[in-house]
Amino acid sequence: MMSGRHHYRITLSGETDREGWRDAARRLLQHGIAPEAVSWLVEGRPDDGELDLSPPASLPTADAPQSLRPVRIAKDLLALINSALLHRNPDRFDLAYRTLWRAQSVPGLHHNPADPDVLKLNGYAKAIRRDIHKMHAFVRFRKIGESGDREQFVAWFEPDHHITAAVAPFFRNRFTGMDWLIVTPGASIAWDGKALAVGPGGRKEDVPQQDVVEAEWRTYYAHIFNPARVNINAMKSEMPMKYWKNLPEAELIPALLEQAGTRVAAMVARPGETLPIHDRPRETVAELPASLDQLYRMLERQPDAPMEKSSPTLVRGAGPDQAELMIIGEQPGDQEDRQSLPFVGPAGQLLDRALAEAGIDRQQTFLTNAVKRFKFSPRGKRRIHETPNAGEIAYYRWWVEQEIRLVNPRLILALGATAARSLTGQPVKIARHRGEILPGPEGRSLLVTVHPSYLLRIPDEQGRQVEYAKFVRDLQLAAANVSQ
Amino acid sequence: MSKLDRSEKLAILADAAKYDASCASSGSVKRNSAKSGGIGSTGGMGICHSYAPDGRCISLLKILMTNYCMFDCLYCINRSSSNVRRAAFTVQEIVDLTLDFYKRNYIEGLFLSSGIIRSPDYTMEQLVEVARRLRVVHRFGGYIHLKTIPEADPDLLKRAGLYADRLSINIELPDDESITRLAPEKDGKLIRKTMDNLGRQVREAKAERKTSRKAPLFAPGGHSTQMIIGADASDDAKILTTSNGLYGSYGLKRIYYSAFSPIPDASSNLPPQAPPLMREHRLYQADWLLRFYGFSVAEIMEGGAAGQLDLTIDPKLAWALQNRARFPVDINRADRESLLRIPGLGGKGVGKILQARRFSGLRLADLERICQSVRKILPFITALDWHPGKQLDSLSLYDRLKPPPEQLSLFPA
What we know:
Chain A is of the alpha/beta class. Chain A has four domains: about 130 residues, no CATH class; about 70 residues, no CATH class; about 55 residues, no CATH class; about 180 residues, Uracil-DNA Glycosylase, subunit E (3-Layer(aba) Sandwich). Chain A is built from 17 helices and 14 strands. In chain A, strands 3-4-5-6-7 form a five-stranded mixed sheet, with helices on one face. In chain A, strands 9-8-12-14-13 form a five-stranded mixed sheet, sandwiched between helices. Chain A has a two-stranded parallel sheet with strand order 1-2. The longest helix of chain B is centred in the middle third of the chain and has 24 residues. In chain B, about 40% of the residues lie in helices and about 10% in strands. By secondary structure, chain B is of the alpha/beta class. Chain B has two domains: about 220 residues, TIM Barrel (Alpha-Beta Barrel), CATH 3.20.20; about 80 residues, no CATH class. In chain B, the strands form three sheets. Chain B has a six-stranded parallel sheet with strand order 3-4-5-6-7-8. Chain B has a two-stranded antiparallel sheet with strand order 1-2. Chain B has a two-stranded parallel ribbon with strand order 9-10. The C terminus of chain B is likely disordered. Classes of the chains: A alpha/beta, B alpha/beta. The interface between A and B is large, with 68 and 65 residues.
C-alpha cells in the first residue's frame, strides 16, 4: 500500500483552520491514506518532535475520480469534530482524522461513548463547551466612551482554547445596541453595530483597568452573599481561581470569607443568651501572599515544616515573576542547597542543555521544586539524596499552588514522579502519561516527563541517548503548547 | 435622615433579597437583540456570571424595590417589626442599574421583588412599571423575573406576565396553619388561588402560541415558588407531599427549598439555629426523584424514618437499601426505568449505557469510562464480568456506602 511508503504532512494555515483540516481529511480519506501516514502541522508552530525527515509525499491528483473511495461522514460526527478542533491540544487534528478514518469501517462509531477515541473527542468537545460557556459568563466590559448615541465598551479575556472567533455571534446578538471589543491573547473580536470583525490578539494592558460601575457591582457582590452558608468548594468548582484575576468582584472574596464567621455570630446572638462561638471558615484565603518574596518568607517562618533529615535552607524558585512556562522538579540537591538556587547541580546542567536544544529560554522560565528543602542522609562527608515521602510532598503542596498562582504560567511541566504527585495529588505513572496534557492545579495545563537525574542514572550510553531524545521531545511539546 | 445614594440603596436592598434561593435565568423563550437593535438576549440555558463565596450562582440582579413592608411575617428579615435599615429605589433607578450591569456583562437580567408599601396594588404597579420600561423604552431583551404579590389585582398580574419571563409567588410554608401562625397577614388559600390563576394563564398563552405565532407571550419561562424549610415543624414527608401537590395542580416549573437562615434581629418565635443545609440538599434530591426518576412520595419516604429523609445518604440510595430484592439490575438488559433506579446513576449515565450497549455487551471497564463513579453502583448491578454476589444482603452495606464523614463538612452550617 502506498501509505506504507509515503508520509503525508498537512500544514494548516492556523490553529483554527478547520476548513483546511476538513478539505485535507476528505482528500486523504478518498485516497485511502491511513492516519499513521499523516502528520498535521500548523503554520508558525514549531514541529513537535516529528523524527521522520523524509520528504513529504504529495497526494495523487484526482485525475481518476473513479478510483477515489466514497467518503461517508455522519453529520453529528462532523459537528462533534468541528467543536473538538478548537481544543488547544496539538493532537486534536490527528485524533479527529483517526476517528473519521475508523468511522469509515464502523458506521456509528461516534455513538459509542465507551470507545477511547470517541471518549477523548467528546472530552475535547466538552472542554470547548465549558470554555465557551465560561467566556459568555466571565467577560467583563468596561466603558470607554460614547460615539453618537452608541456607548463603547472594551473587555479583556483569557480563554483556554481557540474559541474567541466562535463566540462572536453570541456577543453580537446580546449586545447589539452598543459598540464593543473583546481582546484575548490569541485573537480579538469587535462589533460596531454593522459588522463583526476578527483581529489579532492583544495584551491586558491594551484594555482600560477600571469602570465607574464596577464599584457598585462589587457592592452588590458583597451584599448578595449569605455569610451563613459559606461553601468555598462549590464556588471554586464553578468559578475556578484562574478566572479571578480578570473579575473585578473576585478581589473581595478573601475579606468576605474572613468576616463571615463574625457576621453569622452576630445574627444568631440573642439578648440574654451567650454568643455561640463560630470558627472562622477553615479555608480562609484571606492571608494569601501577594508576591513570591512574601510567600517564601512566610514559608521560612512556618514552624511545622517537615525538617527531619532535611537541610534548614529553603531553596526558592527562580525566574521571572510572571512566566509562560513553569518547570517543577523534585527537591533541591546538594549543590542547589549550598547555592540556594534551583537546578544548578549536575541534573540542572543536563536540563540546561536539553532546554537549549528544545529552544526554551531558561531566563524566561520559572524553575522550582515540589519540595523546598534538600532531604538527605549523611554518609561520611557526603550527603546522599533521599526521596521525599508523601507527607513531605503534601506539606509543600499548598505552597507550590501559591507559586503557581503568583507566577501564573500557561503551562506547568512536572519533572519526575514527585512533582507530578505534588501537582495532581495522586501517584502518576510518568511513562504512561508523558506527552499528554493533564489537568493541573486550578485547571491549568500540566505536562509530565522524567526528571533529568533519571537520565544521569541510566548506565548504558545508548539507553541514555534514547531517553535523552525523548526528554527533549517532551520539552519541545511544552514549548509548542506555550507558544500556542 | 440623609438621602441615600444608589450604591447605598443597592447595599441594603441586595442584603434584603439574598434569602431568596432562586436565581435561575433558564427555561424562557430564545430571544436576541439582532433585530431590535437593543440590548439583551436569552438562550435556553441560563448563564451564571459569578459565584458568591456561599457557592451560589449570581445570574440575576436580585434586589428588592424596597424593604419597607406593611406585613409582619416572622421568618422575614423585612417584616414591619424588624429593625433593619430601610431603603427604596425609584423605578428609574432600578431600570438604570439593570442596564448598567447588563451592558458590562455582569448579569443575565433582573429578579425584582419588594416589600409591600401603601397597598399591594400600588407595589405591584411599580414592579410592573420597571419591567415595562425595560422592555418597551429600552428594548431590553434580557431575563426578567418578577415576584408577584398574591393580594394584588389579577389584572396587574396579567400585565406583569406580558413583560416578565418568569413570575413567582412564594408559598412560604408547607401548610396553612403555619402560614397563619408565622405570617398573620398572609392567607394560604389566596396564595394558592393566585398560583392557580397564574398557572392557567401560562398554560393558555402557551396553547395560543401553538395556534398563532402572533399570540402574546405570557411569562414564557413559567412560574415557580419558594418554600422555607425549618421555620416550622413540618417534616420532610409533609413538605414533599405539598410539593407533589403543587407540581401536579399548578404546573410549576420549580419549587425552591430555602433552609431557614438565621436573620439579624429575628423573632423569638423562630428556632435560633439554621436547620442543617444538608436537609435542604436532600429535599432537592427528593424533588428531582419526583420529577425525573418516576418516584412517588411514598417510595421516597421508605428510605427515611419518622417522616424525615436520611441526612447521611441520598434518598435514592436509601430507597434502594430498603428494596434490595429489586437488585441487582442487569446493566445490559434492564429498561430505562429500572436503570434510573440504580443509586449513583443519573439520567445522563443511563443515556450513555443505553447507547453504548447497542455496540457490545458492557463490562466494568466500559462502565468506568462512561459513569461518574462505578464504585457506588457496583453492589446494585450485574455486567458481563461482574456480579455483586452476596454483598447486597450484607447488613454493613449502609455503612460501606455512606460518604466518608469529612464530606459532610462541604456544607458547613
